[in-house]
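To illustrate the input format used throughout this study, we show a single complete record. The first block contains the structure-token representation of the backbone; no residue identities are included at this stage. The design step must infer an amino acid for every position from geometry alone.
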């Protein structure tokens, strides 16, 4: 998708730097060979390496998809401490070698907290350049509403995913609309069953990642890759007028979310910058859900920092 120009547009040439761990070096080399054999017009080079410093050298965009997946019998703290170590190392490599304008998207779980660790250990990367992926959840919410209402997915806009990329995330439909022949209509008006919106819908989006894992015994792949492309595309190229998307970004205190957390907010993007959408009304139901997710992130942060002894 990246090499075909889906992420950065049809006129943006690129060099891909691919990083993997030593045991995967053969497969990594094969990916490089296949990329070359595809003769993508935009692809000006491929660097495949198991050395993080080499991989990070002069990169303008870093998409971090590597992490330690939870295995049977592992405690949450064990997973967190493994990922904390990985993200500390990647942060140091980016800090030393990436381009000054490098923008970072963390995909690997726990994505919000991995991004926070990265921010801690790559202090020269401006904090607004460090983000995590919640676009997958945003896209899932949009798709589920389109299915429920039997409308094209492209007609649904302005859902919001607040919080953590975990089962405490809050997919909020209070401001979402559907474009119809007679103008934009609020989703809340079109979905007759408000109980469905408050219960089943939220749970389905929150649990969709787990449902994919149950179905294919592996984490989401295509939809996660596509969402990562959407995230970078909109960040660099901009969100369409009147539309917002969800991104995990460093909280500035907006909507009462404590600064110092990487939290998913509705954002609009223009020319490589994002801005949190301000002034949205938040009802009591939303407030509670948004705070629950913030609380979970604060706990994850404390756990991560205890693993790193900072
Ligand atoms: C997803 O949302 O599909 C993944 O983050 C799930 C996971 O735990 O890998």
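Output of the design step:
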């Amino acid at each position: 998708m990246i090499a075909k120009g889906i992420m950065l547009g049809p006129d943006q040439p690129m060099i891909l730097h691919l990083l993997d761990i030593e045991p995967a070096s053969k497969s990594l080399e094969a990916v490089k060979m296949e990329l070359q054999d595809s003769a993508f017009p935009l692809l000006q080079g491929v660097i495949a390496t198991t050395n993080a410093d080499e991989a990070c050298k002069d990169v303008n965009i870093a998409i971090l998809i590597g992490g330690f997946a939870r295995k049977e019998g592992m405690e949450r703290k064990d997973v967190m401490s493994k990922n904390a170590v990985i993200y500390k190392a990647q942060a140091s490599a980016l800090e030393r070698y990436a381009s000054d304008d490098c923008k970072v998207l963390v995909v690997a779980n726990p994505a919000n907290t991995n991004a926070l660790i990265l921010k801690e250990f790559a202090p020269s990367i401006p904090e607004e350049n460090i983000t995590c992926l919640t676009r997958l959840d945003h896209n899932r919410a949009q798709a589920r509403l389109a299915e429920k209402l039997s409308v094209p997915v492209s007609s649904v806009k302005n859902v919001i995913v607040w919080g953590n990329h975990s089962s405490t995330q809050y997919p909020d439909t209070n401001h979402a609309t559907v474009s119809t022949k007679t103008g934009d209509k609020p989703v809340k008006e079109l979905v007759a069953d408000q109980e469905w919106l408050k219960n089943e819908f939220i749970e389905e989006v929150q649990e969709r990642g787990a449902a994919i894992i149950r179905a294919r015994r592996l984490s989401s792949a295509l939809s996660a890759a596509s969402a990562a492309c959407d995230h970078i595309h909109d960040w660099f190229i901009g969100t369409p007028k009147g539309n917002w998307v969800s991104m995990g970004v460093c909280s500035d205190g907006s909507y009462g979310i404590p600064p110092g957390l990487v939290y998913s907010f509705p954002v609009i993007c223009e020319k490589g910058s994002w801005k949190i959408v301000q002034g949205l009304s938040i009802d009591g139901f939303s407030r509670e859900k948004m705070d629950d997710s913030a609380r979970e992130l604060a706990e994850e942060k404390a756990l991560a920092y205890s693993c790193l002894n900072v």
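Structural context for interpreting the output: The two ends are 38 Å apart (CA to CA). The longest helix spans residues 284-308.
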